[in-house]
């Protein structure tokens, strides 16, 4: 008799208020995320796990200010989760060339991403700065310029990675993600089993495939259910707070994100059979997990169109 009202109340959580995608990873482009041994061997000219940012030799700045600018660029890129390093580019490195040109009394900063083969892969320009202010090398000005440039550089790197994935037949742009589901723990009643079965059925599609072992899995997913006593509801009945956290980790065990469902229910209402509640919760969770996997892997990112190759003189 109570199952229909319970489903209605729980679905309210899962719909408008219940699904929260957690982890800063969701907004991270991961342009230089290590693709693993197999990915490195299969990808075309794969990027390394860092981006070198050498001090610019020609930037219309003094030596000290040029060093400060390169350090500011590194700090701003790290804030964008791009693993940049302030050091000279070495053989095999991707690197960021900093430069500047004068136009109409202003200095325009220029940022070029260079491949290990010495080819300019992308070039972005910053906003013009009055020439006198630029030449003065004010630290706050240089920091502001770096912060303004970082998001555009990160987007370019994301597009470069997406283009490489497009050309790699083994990337997640061309096959389903292999996902190991470790199951559900902590749910009352038959929730552990019911949620696990419903989630496994809901996640399978052309983009995601559930497998029974963690071997060679691209991602692993687990769910932790927590039930705690809450304050009485508006009707005066005892309440419980229900939390489901669907955690996603990559092949290296690094957290890719989490989908969290929150809801208040009548106390002990889920101590027995979950039924349709498990199905509704699992379907919503599957959508959240799919979003985590897509954003973290970059399989939905738009490739940066190839430009005319421009060779960089040897350093």
Give the number of domains. Answer: 2
Q: Average pLDDT value?
A: 81
Strand content: 25-35%
End-to-end CA span: 77 Å
> Which CATH architecture of the largest domain is right?
2-Layer Sandwich
Overview of the structural elements:
35% of the residues are buried. 35% of the residues lie in helices and 26% in strands. It is elongated and about 75 Å long. Helix 6 (191-203) crosses helix 7. Mean pLDDT is 81; it is low at 1-18, 21-31, 34-48 and 308-315. By secondary structure, the protein is of the alpha/beta class. It folds into 2 domains: 3-27 and 175-297, Double Stranded RNA Binding Domain; 51-167, Rossmann fold (3-Layer(aba) Sandwich), CATH 3.40.50. A hairpin with a 2-residue loop joins strand 4 (95-103) and strand 5 (106-114). The chain has a 6-stranded mixed sheet with strand order 1-12-11-10-8-9, covered by helices on one side. It comes from Gluconacetobacter tumulisoli. This is Lipoprotein.
Search tags:
disordered N terminus, 2 domains, six-stranded mixed β-sheet, alpha/beta, single chain, Lipoprotein, 7 helices, elongated, Double Stranded RNA Binding Domain, 315 residues, Rossmann fold
Secondary-structure blueprint:
Blueprint: H1 3-17, E1 19-22, H2 36-42, E2 51-52, H3 63-79, E3 84-85, E4 95-103, E5 106-114, E6 120-125, E7 129-130, H4 131-136, H5 139-167, E8 177-185, H6 191-203, E9 208-211, E10 219-230, E11 239-250, E12 255-266, H7 276-297
Parallel strand pairs: 2-3, 8-9, 8-10
Antiparallel strand pairs: 1-12, 4-5, 5-6, 5-7, 10-11, 11-12
Helix pairs in contact: 1-7, 3-5, 6-7
Protein name: Lipoprotein
């Amino acid at each position: 008799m109570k199952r229909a009202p319970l489903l209605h109340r729980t679905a309210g959580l899962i719909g408008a208020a219940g699904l929260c995608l957690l982890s800063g990873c969701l907004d991270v482009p991961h342009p230089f995320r290590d693709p693993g041994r197999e990915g490195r061997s299969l990808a075309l000219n794969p990027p390394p796990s860092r981006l070198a940012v050498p001090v610019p030799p020609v930037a219309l700045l003094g030596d000290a200010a040029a060093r400060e600018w390169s350090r500011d660029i590194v700090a701003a890129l790290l804030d964008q989760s791009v693993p940049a390093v302030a050091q000279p580019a070495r053989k095999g490195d991707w690197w960021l060339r900093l430069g500047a040109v004068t136009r109409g009394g202003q200095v325009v900063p220029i940022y070029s991403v260079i491949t290990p083969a010495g080819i300019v892969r992308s070039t972005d320009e910053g906003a013009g700065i009055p020439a006198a202010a630029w030449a003065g090398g004010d630290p706050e000005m240089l920091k502001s310029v770096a912060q303004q440039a970082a998001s555009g550089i990160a987007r370019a790197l994301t597009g470069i990675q997406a283009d490489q994935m497009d050309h790699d037949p083994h990337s997640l742009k061309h096959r389903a993600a292999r996902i190991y589901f470790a199951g559900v723990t902590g749910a009352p009643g038959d929730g552990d089993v019911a949620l696990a079965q419903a989630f496994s059925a809901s996640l399978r599609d052309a983009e995601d495939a559930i497998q029974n072992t963690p071997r060679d899995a691209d991602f692993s997913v687990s769910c932790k259910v927590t039930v705690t006593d809450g304050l009485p509801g508006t009707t005066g009945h005892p309440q419980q707070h229900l939390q489901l956290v669907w955690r996603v980790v990559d092949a290296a065990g690094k957290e890719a994100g989490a989908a969290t469902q929150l809801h208040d229910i009548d106390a002990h209402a889920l101590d027995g059979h979950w039924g349709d509640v498990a199905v509704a919760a699992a379907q919503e969770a599957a959508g959240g997990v799919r979003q985590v996997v897509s954003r973290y892997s970059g399989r939905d990112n738009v490739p940066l169109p190839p430009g005319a190759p421009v060779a960089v003189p040897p350093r």
